[in-house]
Amino acid sequence: METAGSDLRSKYELSRHAGELRWIGLGSFWLQLATVIASGTMLLFAVFGRELGSTASNGATTGFALTLASLGVAALAASAFAMYHCTRLAKKLSATDLRLRPEREAIARALQIGSFISLGGMLLSFFGAEIGAGILLAKSLAIPQGTDIYDSAKVIRVLDILIVLASTTCLGAHFVGHAASLALSKRIEA
Fold first, then answer.
1. Beta-carbon neighbour count of residue 8 at 10 Å?
2. Model-level pTM?
3. I need a labelling partner for 71 at 20 to 30 A (CA). Which of 27, 38, 63, 123 fits?
4. Rounded Cα distance, 29 and 83, in Å
5. Closest by CA position to 58, among listed 172, 139, 117
6. How far is it, in rounded angstroms, from Cα 85 to Cα 114?
C-alpha cells in the first residue's frame, strides 16, 4: 500500500512540475517574443532612419551601440526559443509513456542553457544601453545652452534614443528569462 501512495505522490509531483514548467515557460516565452518584436522594430527604425551618407553624425560609438543592441535582441530570440523548448519538455514530461519522458538532467541542462543565454544577452544589452546613454550624455553636454546648433553631429537624434530604449527593454526581458530559468531549475531539482 505504501508503494501505491508514493506512486501517487510522485505522479502528483511530476504533474505539478510539468505544469509549472509549461506555464512559466510559456509566460516567459511570450514576454520575450513580444520584446524581441518591439525591440527589433525599434532597431529597424534606428537602422533605416540613419543618415547613411553622413559619417559625421554616425560615429563609431553609435554603430557599436547599435551592434550590441542588435546582438542583445538576437540573444533574446535565442532565449525565447530556449523557453519554448522547455514547454515542449513539459509536454513530454506529462506523457503517460515512460519512454517519452525526459530525464531530470535533460530538463536541468535545457534550463541552464536558457539561463546562460539570458546572462550573455543581459551583458550585451547592458553595454549597448550604457554606450547609448553615454552618447546621449556627450551630445547633450556638447550643446551650448541657448545657442543655435549648426553641427549636426551634436544634435541628439532619435536613433540614439531608440538604441538605448531597445537595449533597456531587452535587458528587462533577459532578466525575466533568467529569473524564470532559475525558478524552474530550483523547482525541478527540489
1. 10
2. 0.81
3. 27
4. 5
5. 139
6. 9
Q: Is the Cα dihedral 94, 100, 105, 109 positive or negative?
A: negative
Question: Residue 175 has which C-alpha cell?
Answer: 532578466
Taking a C-beta distance cutoff of 8 angstroms, is the pair 187, 106 a contact?
A: no
Q: How many CB atoms lie within 10 A of CB 64?
A: 15
- CB contact at 8 A, 119 and 79: no
Tracing cell 531597445 back to the chain, one arrives at 166
Helix axes 2-48, 60-93, angle to 10 degrees: 160
Instruction: Encode burial over 155-188: b for 16+ CB neighbours within 10 A, e otherwise.
Output: ebbebbbbbbbbbbbbbebbebbbebbeebbeeb
Cα–Cα distance measured from residue 68 to residue 71, given in angstroms and rounded to the nearest whole number: 5
List pLDDT tens digits, range 13-68.
Answer: 777 778 888 898 899 999 999 999 999 999 888 888 765 445 445 567 788 888 99
